[in-house]
Amino acid sequence: MSTIKANTLLHSDGTTTTQPSIPALDKRMAKAWLSMNGTGTVAINDSYNISSITDGGTGWYQANLTTAMSNTNFSVALSIGYDGSVHNDDHMLGVKERMSDRTTSVVKVLCNLNTNGGSYTDNADVLMYNLIVFGA
Amino acid sequence: MKIIYQEADGNVCVITPAANCSLTDAQTALKDVPTGLKFKIVDDSVVPSDRVFRNAWAVDAATLTDGVGD
């Protein structure tokens, strides 16, 4: 048993962009993540392993991964943030992935809004949409 | 830059390339536009920021001349 103490861990090529491989921890690390704005001019706030986003219409957002996953059994965590000046606090906003569109490099979601507590929902753009991908 | 393409049902899709991705916009278009669909790379200002009628956006398919998704 030994302990490595270091302040910085780099790949052998010396860059900060090439990841050093830690096989035992690989599945615990996010393979991709995204924070984007779905209102006004749709934009990426920040991301990792995302080549682009596709605006497919009101509430439809697609993340395109730069490096594809090895299979489609990956896990996706989604969240949305709303603009309090647009949506009341009692509005129900939801986000769901359309699984028929999932590939090793595509995650497509739809954001819905329900303002009256009834059965009617409509597609809705959201101030912030977030995605994290774990898997192989 | 933005990349515009049209789905078979006429729906207009707009791709925003990630600034921190090493791919060029053309490479991103070839990779992220669905296979066989024509695309156009345009300036950000071409795409409206008013999304009230987002689902009514239309594009002249004849202007999608920059390539075809791989």
How would you describe the overall organization of this protein?
The complex is a heterodimer of chains A (136) and B (70). Chain A is mostly beta strands and 136 residues long. Chain A has one domain (26-134). Chain A has strands spanning 32-37, 43-48, 50-57, 60-65, 75-81, 92-97, 106-114, 122-123, 128-134. In chain A, the strands form two sheets. In chain A, strands 3, 4, 6, 7 and 8 form a five-stranded antiparallel β-sheet that branches. In chain A, strands 2-1-9-5 form a four-stranded antiparallel β-sheet, with no helix packed on it. In chain A, a hairpin with a 2-residue loop joins strand 3 (50-57) and strand 4. Chain B contains one helix and four strands; from the N terminus they run E-E-H-E-E. Chain B has one helix spanning 25-32; strands at residues 2-6, 12-17, 38-42, 67-68. Chain B has a four-stranded antiparallel β-sheet, covered by helices on one side. The two termini of chain B are 19 Å apart. The longest helix of chain B is centred in the middle third of the chain and has 8 residues, at 25-32. Chains A and B meet through strand 2 and strand 3 of A and strand 2 and helix 1 of B.
Please outline what is shown here:
Helix content of chain A is 0%, strand content 42%.
Kindly state the number of beta strands of chain B.
Answer: 4
Order of helices and strands of chain A: EEEEEEEEE
Question: Main beta sheet of chain B, described?
Answer: 4 strands, antiparallel
Strand content of chain B: 25-35%
List the helices and strands and how they pair.
The complex is a heterodimer of chains A (136) and B (70).
Chain A: E1 32-37, E2 43-48, E3 50-57, E4 60-65, E5 75-81, E6 92-97, E7 106-114, E8 122-123, E9 128-134
Antiparallel strand pairs in A: 1-2, 1-9, 3-4, 4-7, 5-9, 6-7, 7-8
Chain B: E1 2-6, E2 12-17, H1 25-32, E3 38-42, E4 67-68
Antiparallel strand pairs in B: 1-2, 1-3, 3-4
